[in-house]
């Protein structure tokens, strides 16, 4: 366990060698670090100036080292990859401890290194090297390691074995393959496209089952069947969307006259105030929706003296 490591040049080179990494000869380097280590396990937070570090292959070594770039850029070269990999902040990289690899940074860089000799047991860590740029578990892993390195956690603690298990599990989770995206069926796609078109065009009084089917390039029967399996219909969705639009507009506009009501009815797809009023009553809701106050707007429209 080392906290507050601060070394330069020869002392820095010796410190890196103690961790199995060699600095190119005659290279001036400065390092600041914190580490926690036990047999076959280490977590380290390292910052150093420009450096070229080499980890030599050891076919007898087991496990992996995870490298999480925190700041700056580092080029990683391994025996398992034909081309160098650019490590940018947020990148997680997994390298077999038995592999030869080199880390080159042309400017100061910071990273987190987590090595374990028993991580190879996890199916998630089966390849010699993998890179994951985004993972929610990566953030949890970084936060856990930072908290441990900034606290009194010690390898001599009775609970340190549990801490190690937690880190190894978070590391495995960080490198899990994301599940393949579930593609919607053709029918689900049709339903989603139909509902989207209804939301966009319900204010057009000409919108109907036939119009919608033609625009979606399907038969009316196919469209009806798809919506019915979702427990609804084209007519019901058009009516519901028009009622929602009218309810929202009435709540915002607070109409004062019959002309105001006719304007709202026309702009939301109704051919008359009477039709709008009946639709709002059929689709009346109770309670309060966010941002709209009472949603029982139909009751507040009042009777149009002209009966329209």
Automatic annotation (TrEMBL):
<feature type="region of interest" description="Disordered">
    <location>
        <begin position="284"/>
        <end position="308"/>
    </location>
</feature>
<feature type="domain" description="HTH araC/xylS-type">
    <location>
        <begin position="192"/>
        <end position="283"/>
    </location>
</feature>
<feature type="compositionally biased region" description="Polar residues">
    <location>
        <begin position="285"/>
        <end position="297"/>
    </location>
</feature>
<dbReference type="GO" id="GO:0003700">
    <property type="term" value="F:DNA-binding transcription factor activity"/>
</dbReference>
<dbReference type="Pfam" id="PF12833">
    <property type="entry name" value="HTH_18"/>
</dbReference>
<dbReference type="InterPro" id="IPR018060">
    <property type="entry name" value="HTH_AraC"/>
</dbReference>
<protein>
    <submittedName>
        <fullName>Helix-turn-helix domain-containing protein</fullName>
    </submittedName>
</protein>
<dbReference type="GO" id="GO:0043565">
    <property type="term" value="F:sequence-specific DNA binding"/>
</dbReference>
């Amino acid at each position: 366990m080392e906290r507050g490591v601060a070394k330069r040049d020869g002392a820095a080179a010796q410190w890196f060698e103690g961790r199995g990494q060699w600095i190119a000869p005659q290279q001036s380097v400065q390092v600041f670090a914190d580490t926690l280590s036990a047999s076959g396990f280490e977590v380290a937070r390292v910052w150093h100036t420009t450096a070229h570090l080499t980890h030599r292959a050891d076919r007898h070594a087991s496990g992996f080292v995870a490298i999480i770039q925190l700041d700056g850029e580092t080029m990683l070269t391994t025996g398992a990859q034909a081309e160098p990999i650019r490590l940018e902040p947020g990148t997680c990289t997994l390298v077999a401890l038995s592999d030869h690899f080199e880390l080159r940074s042309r400017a100061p860089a910071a990273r987190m290194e987590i090595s374990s000799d028993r991580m190879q047991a996890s199916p998630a860590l089966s390849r010699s090297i993998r890179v994951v740029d985004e993972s929610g578990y990566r953030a949890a892993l970084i936060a856990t390691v930072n908290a441990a390195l900034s606290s009194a956690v010690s390898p001599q603690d009775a609970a340190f074995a549990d801490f190690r298990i937690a880190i190894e599990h978070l590391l495995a989770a960080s490198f899990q393959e994301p599940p393949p995206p579930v593609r919607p069926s053709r029918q689900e796609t049709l339903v989603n496209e139909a509902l989207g078109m209804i939301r966009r065009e319900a204010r057009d009084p000409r919108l109907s089952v036939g119009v919608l089917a033609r625009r979606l390039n399907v038969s009316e029967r196919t469209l009806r069947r798809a919506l019915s399996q979702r427990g609804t219909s084209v007519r019901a969705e058009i009516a519901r969307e028009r009622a929602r639009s009218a309810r929202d507009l009435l709540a915002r506009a607070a109409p004062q006259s019959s002309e105001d009501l006719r304007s709202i009815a026309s702009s939301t797809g109704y051919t008359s105030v009477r039709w709008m009023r009946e639709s709002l009553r059929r689709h009346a809701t109770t309670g309060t929706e966010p941002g709209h106050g009472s949603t029982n707007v139909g009751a507040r429209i009042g009777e149009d003296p002209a009966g329209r």
